Amino acid sequence: MKAVRKRVLAMIVVIGLLGSIFCGGCGLSLHPIYKSTLAGALIGGIIGYQSDEALAGALIGGAILGVGELLSQTDEIAEEESACSEPQQDQKVVVEVTNSNGSITPVLLTKKGSLYVGPNGEAYRQRPTDQQLRPVYGL
Q1: Whether the Cβ atoms of residue 116 and residue 123 lie closer than 8 Å to each other
Q2: What residue spans of the chain are helical by DSSP H?
Q3: N or C: which end of the chain has fewer CB within 10 A?
Q4: Model pLDDT for residues 33-84, shown as the tens digit of each residue
Q5: 10-22 burial string, b = 16+ CB within 10 Å, else e?
Q6: Higher pLDDT, 118 or 75
Q7: Helical (H) or strand (E) element with 123
Q8: Burial of 93 (0-12, 13-18, 19+ CB in 10 A)
Q9: What angle do CA 70, 74, 80 make, to 5 degrees?
Q10: Neighbouring-strand partners of residue 115
């Protein structure tokens, strides 16, 4: 029974280490994973030594803390990717058009990419000036 348990624990550690090695290109930082695994193995070994199961304790502790660090890093990567994939808000720009009677009419434009779109749906390649908007929105 002990031999089977040791083999299972050894396989868990090997799978965890192989997973961390092969996921190195996924944006994971291996140093903290190894550091956590070694810390877990040390703590587990100390606890296991007190019950004459130092190897089993080291394997379990290393596996638990190593996998915990791996999961923590994958959560951070997922959060960063979701933040990057959110669409950018369209910018709003107000151009004040001076009318012939001296009053001012604000015109709200929406910047979509490199285009400025007016309230009537017309598009400008550059930010339109007061003079360009006066014939359409002025009095």
Answers
A1: yes
A2: 2-22, 30-50, 54-85, 130-137
A3: N
A4: 777 777 777 777 788 777 888 788 777 887 787 777 777 877 777 777 666 6
A5: eebbeebbeebee
A6: 118
A7: strand 123-124
A8: middle
A9: 145
A10: 112
